[in-house]
Amino acid sequence: MTDSRLPRSRDMWHIAVPMILSNVSVPLLGMVDTGVTGHLDSPVYLGAVAIGAMIFSFLYTGVNFLRMGTTGITAQSFGADDNDGLRVSLGQALIVALLVAFTLIALQQPLGQLAMHLLGPDPETRVFALEYFSIRIWSAPGTLANYALIGWFIGLQNARIPLLIFLTINLTNIALDLLFVIVFGMKVDGVALASVFAEYSGLLVGGAFALSELRRRVGHWPIPKLVNLSAYKGFFSVNANLFIRTMALMFTLGFVTAQGARFGGLILAANAVLMNFQNLTSFGLDGLAHAAEALVGKAVGEKSRGALQESVRLTLKWSLIFSLGFTAAYLVVGPTVIRILTDLPEVRDTAIRYLPWMIASPLVSVWCFLYDGVYVGATRAKEMRNIMIVSTVVVFLPAWYVLQPLGNDGLWLAFLLFMASRGIGMHIGYRRTILPLLARSNEQR
After folding, report:
1. Contact, 344 vs 41, CB < 8 A?
2. How far apart are CA 353 and CA 258, in angstroms?
């Protein structure tokens, strides 16, 4: 392999820039949801939307394997120049997405009640949170199909289409948020309904571009690989481990929200405001992780150790630069952002009190975000699963148990220790498992 085939900065930015813009639009939408409900006449609406949104974050992020697994599998087919494999990766992901979505809709009543039991909001917040849940659950088919489409396009190293999908969803959602709540006088029902309409608008855009892409890439649909359950073995081998990994992550995030609720409505609302900063960090750095997914997956498909190492080097360097930028921004404008998000004095003061944890978070979290992309591209889902479980069970829960006397400070400190342990574990795993794997592949060539 010549150096001309190694990934360059422009290859990374070709993927990363659209995905950063796409990802940052998601927490900005969350900020609009927070801002719209934070200016209503009671903090109960803000708490209800926080609870409801957290439930869907758990449900939908729980099946985010549809995005991550599809990216890795597609990127390797792309690197191997396998157009039939590209059709299989998209078809299988869409079929599983719709099956999961309709299962969630069928089970909406027990799921909603279970969520309320586990999170334990006060009775008034519970009523509005269930109202939000019962409306937004109907977005499931659109949301999960969009996950599959976005993962597929990232695997093709085409980040422009995911950007269009994200922008369509989030701009539609923001516009309908303002229309339903500000103009029509709706409350949490308006926020939920806006999300439903927005997801299907994104699906229309993504589906149209997928059809165009398939017409351009000559190949055929291997129907047996779409209709025979045994043909999904490879798909589920990757995605079952990603599912378990994501469930451990969502357990931790849900635990943080649930503990905040048990500290009282004020801490719950303040933590909901602060979580917007964590989401902004996550989605911003994930843009570079998406670039790592596509570049690493292509390198694995080509069986190139040099391309793998250069992909990791490029994306890690820029991830560190971006994390420093997030920390600096939160330090300077964090209190101002909090004041914009809510005009409730007690919530503002409490959120500012705990803001230092969000200022530190980007520098702690950057490592696990970047290595998530590396592992997804290499389809090393089993290792991702194991590291996440260890970080949750061995680090986060014991840390929270020890730090409980510190209250909400202890909760955020335990969360940052969890993020740090993920990054350390995946760095060690990268050196011990992924690099040696490609070294053996090169020897076999």
Report:
1. no
2. 19
